[in-house]
Amino acid sequence: MWDPDRGPGCYPAPSNTGGMVGMVRPSLVDPHPPAPSLDAQIAGWSADYLRYLKIRRRSVSHRERVQLSLKHFHRWLSDQYPVQKLSIQVVEEYALWLMDEARPHAGTAREGAPGTLSVATQRAYLIDLRSFLRWCGTRDLLPTQAYRWVPVPPAPRSAPKRARNEDIARILEAAAAHDLRSYAMCCLLIDCGLRAGELATLQIDQCDTKNCVIAVHGKTGYRQVAISTKAAAVLEQWLQVQNQKTMYVFPGRKDGHITADTVYQILNRLKAEAGVTGRINPHAWRHAYISNTALKGGNAALTQIQAGHASIETTQRYFGFGIQELREYQQRVSALPDLMPAETPSFPAKKRRAPKPNADELRTAILECPNWEALGRRYGVTGAAVKKWAQKWLLLPVYREAKRLRRKS
After folding, report:
1. Domain 38-149 class, CATH top level
2. What is the pLDDT of residue 51?
3. Is the CB of residue 250 less than 8 Å from the CB of residue 196?
4. 372: which residues sit within 8 A by CB, 6+ positions away?
5. Is 310 helix (H, G, I), strand (E, B) or coil?
6. pLDDT tens, position by position, 355-374
7. What CATH superfamily is the domain 165-330?
8. Where exactly are the structural domains of the chain?
9. Is 200 in contact with 263 (CB distance < 8 Å)?
10. CA distance 40 to 279
């Protein structure tokens, strides 16, 4: 029976006294709802993971890259058949999709087959996914070892990305003739390996030129960087000339300071003026700084702190040495000069092999000495080689006849 005043589906509610005191509608909610698909779960967990990265004070650019990587993974899951559980097969299929069919969602490749992602981009997406799955494992959202399922390809071997020292010297010469601001920027780039963004946002009150220390804000947060006395002198000279009411060392129109793109543009202009053809972007100067510290016997741990790297493995990947530097290093560290004898040993000259005879010469030699081994010693070869010559020139009957005559005599 239903209540006509409250509509169909409403029935009187029983009371404790046995009477009907109200009307209730039957629940329309399924008591056994289907489990959410994996892509829906990933979408929810991704927001929590990004909040976790923010708590860990990861940079904005890092969080944006992770968000893009997880967005691609979520979109790929939603395009597949309903996946209810993450498995190693699902992760491997995603890795294959990144290799073969990732362009519709992930951009254009810079290397490899047209329409596919570069190996470096594939590595970035898979490394972000691995970190996300590790975070899910620590919160019992996924199996603890799920992150081990991610097949990260090895890093591609590439040519050194560092700027050559001779190119840097020509750029510094061009900057000194151009203006003091460009010269001060170039000196700081090669002196302590600052990133372009760190150089652009350097503040005046964070520069202690007397103690040769500056403070910068980079990818790993706030850090102090030591500079050489010559770089400090150039920086002090620029601060005295700059004479603008701003808090930044290199003032600009946007946010009061120049941008990282401005640093690139200044270096490209100096590159054209100096006639340099090699790599000269700010990050190449950073590679050059780290490589030069290693060539001069610097401490890798101290270089890591100066460069602002989270791990020393990252610093070691910046080492890029050319063949000339390797040659000079080998001459400096080789132990052979100390171990060689004082007097240079003299070796007997190697006997030169006699020239190969022609057919007539070999016939004459066989008649004189019908012995393959003796003939081989005469010509500096084996007896089997002489026998092959005789077989080629049909001299085997001559050899047998000479052998027979030698036995009779």
Report:
1. mainly alpha
2. 93
3. no
4. 383, 384, 386, 387
5. coil
6. 888 999 999 999 998 899 98
7. Intergrase catalytic core (1.10.443.10)
8. 38-149, 165-330, 359-408
9. yes
10. 45
